[in-house]
Amino acid sequence: MAATLLLTTVAVGQDLGPQSQTSREQVEKLVGLWKDHFAGADSLQQRRTAFKALMETMPGPTRIQLRQIDADGVNAELMWPARLHHPIGQRVILYIHGGGFSSGSIRTHSLLAGSLAKAASSDVLLIDYRLVPEYGYPAQINDALTAYRWLLDNGYDNGNVVVAGDGAGGNIAIETVLRQMQAAKPLPAGVVALSPITDLAATGGSMTSNADGDPLVDKAWIETLRKAYLGRRSPTDPQASPLYADMKGFPPLLLQVGSGEALLDDTLRLADKARQAGVDVTTEVWPGMPHQWQLFPSLLDDADRASQNIAEFAVRHFADKPKE
């Protein structure tokens, strides 16, 4: 499938250009690691263990400070740049990790979170929400909404909060803000969704067209997640699949996705729907990138570039800009 940067009429973006040979080689190495760790991992628990083992081989964040947080019952870690002039408590990114609703943790996403804290001169609240299959829908969204409201109750102005997440975390991030909209309560300054699962019915064409090239996600896996997460609830319920939700009034939205992902159309269709609802949408389609590439800055140059774009989006929308 062609890899281009999609620019809607209300989007701001950059020309990513073609994928370099170096980038292709880096991705090939990463995909090899994915395959090594996930070989034979078919169940939710096996994939949880494989993801944990893979991410434990990656370095942790550096030059940050952190604090363990109980966000009204939601376990979390607050991190911020290790710079004396950084004003803790002024700007924050609420980060909701991915992992198919059933895996992932503060540890698996701490490197990305730390990178965002430094690049955006921002605090980052990284949460451990309840996982499938131990807890089904809507526990995950409820935990994220609790954490968001905890931030507002503890000194952060909503205009200085950006909500972000990847994969299932992107779904949860969007659904969290949709619930805040439905409650007519203060919305964040922006939302970032990285390869979000927006359609648990898995009707996107890229589920088929990109099936052979995506080492992590396919239609059968989305169906497995849907059953474990939703039970008998309809996968087209807008309370669970944001592709079917009314996006009118949604905050500015940044979407990133790899050109060869099975979830490509989950991103592109949501972007189109949000644009038609008048949302300020920035959509980036990254040539050759696999699912969750942003987690691997130690392996991929494009992970650093993507994180920088996320940070610039956050800074652009924070009410109080960081001082140079």
Describe the structure.
This protein has 324 residues and is of the alpha/beta class. The protein is built from nine helices and eight strands. It has helices at 21-38, 44-55, 106-120, 139-153, 168-182, 206-209, 219-230, 264-276, 301-317; strands spanning 64-71, 74-81, 92-96, 123-128, 161-166, 190-194, 253-258, 281-286. An eight-stranded mixed β-sheet has the order 1-2-4-3-5-6-7-8, with helices on both faces. β5, α5 and β6 form a beta-alpha-beta unit. α1 crosses α2, α3 (106-120) crosses α9 and α4 packs across α5 (168-182). The protein is globular. Residues 1-14 have low confidence and may be disordered.
Label this structure with key terms:
alpha/beta, globular, eight-stranded mixed β-sheet, 37% helix
Structural topology:
Elements: H1 21-38, H2 44-55, E1 64-71, E2 74-81, E3 92-96, H3 106-120, E4 123-128, H4 139-153, E5 161-166, H5 168-182, E6 190-194, H6 206-209, H7 219-230, E7 253-258, H8 264-276, E8 281-286, H9 301-317
Parallel strand pairs: 3-4, 3-5, 5-6, 6-7, 7-8
Antiparallel strand pairs: 1-2, 2-4
